[in-house]
Amino acid sequence: MTDTTLADLGWSAPFARQLTAGEETLHPMRVAEVHRDRLRALGAAGDAMLIPSERAGAYAVGDWVLSDGTSALRRLEPQSDLTRKAAGHTVERQRIAANIDTIAVVTSCNADFNLARLERYLALIASAGCLPLIVLTKADLVADADDYRRQAEKLSPLVTALALNAKDMEDAGRLTAWCGPGRTLALIGSSGVGKTTLRNALTEFTAATAGIREDDAKGRHTTTFRSLVRTRAGGWLIDTPGMRELQLADAQEGIGEVFDDITEIAAQCRFNDCAHETEPGCAIRAALDQGRIDPDRLRRWQKLMLEDRYNSETLSQTRSRQKAFGKMVKGGQARGRHKRNPGR
Ligand SMILES: Nc1nc2c(ncn2[C@@H]2O[C@H](COP(=O)(O)OP(=O)(O)OP(=O)(O)O)[C@@H](O)[C@H]2O)c(=O)[nH]1
Ligand SMILES: [Zn+2]
């Protein structure tokens, strides 16, 4: 009992092209929830709980899978992939959501507004392969909302920025262009900026669609999230708990896009590992002297590059760093003992 078409769900040529001979009889379905041993997926014939064919971590909300009605037989390559560095010391990537068209960074026109943080989000969005949108909420509380909007749009030619009052349904409705039929939008941003308010305005949101308490196999209550939510405009909003703690990792490409003016200049430094400090032939310092680079923007770029390098450290690099640290600690203890017991 559904009148949802595959196109409404976001099915498009890049997915259709992935079908191989023999797969035409399978049903494409879009993953709405990822559970430990089941996937809830939406298709032209309605919802279904599917048995995954890969481990749960291989799937993300928004993925397309091919199903025979019972199982997810194959997962299709996503058009965009939002991931984050997994917790702990590994550099394994944790998938957060897939096939998002537009990611809206929600920030308010006051204390939360921070150009460096916006740039970090823009780099992350570019690395995920999504289109960025900046939504400045609480426009009703400030006199100069349009100034904030202009500052945000100056960050990158890819950016569209909107200033609005999230509590006003009509104003929030300006986002429907990004979440109509076949389109998927996601909202990210700090706590308290108005993401829930926007979600309420854009979807038939109720407490029941936010978290569903379920009993797991051991009889414990677990809260699962309905993460792919239909918008009033006929499209989709992806809202997963993982989006709240996004970090910048492996965003090199994204940083390059957001700071293309600076990376172009840096490419002209004499040394390709130039730290832009005292090296001869440094194009960055020359550009700074000529006032072609904004020093604040340069500092933000350097900070992002450092953070990205740290986050992208490979597993073996992490291990050898930890090992070297362990040796140093042990070595220190051994020497200490030696000193304290000189007679032995
Ligand atoms: N005046 C005004 N208040 C707003 C606007 N957007 C959000 N608020 C208020 O700001 C508070 C926080 O909004 P939420 O939507 O809960 O923020 P959130 O981003 O979902 O926060 P978390 O759930 O903590 O991640 C609420 O009291 C909202 O009513 C706005 O555009 N104008
Ligand atoms: Zn340099």
TrEMBL record:
The enzyme's E.C. designation: 3.6.1.-
Compositional bias segments (type: Basic residues): 335-344
Binding sites annotated in the UniProt record for Zn(2+): C269, C274, H276, C282
Domain EngC GTPase: 98-244
Family as reported in the entry's similarity comment: Belongs to the TRAFAC class YlqF/YawG GTPase family. RsgA subfamily.
Cited NCBIfam families: ribosome small subunit-dependent GTPase A
Protein name: Small ribosomal subunit biogenesis GTPase RsgA
Lineage: Bacteria, Pseudomonadati, Pseudomonadota, Alphaproteobacteria, Rhodobacterales
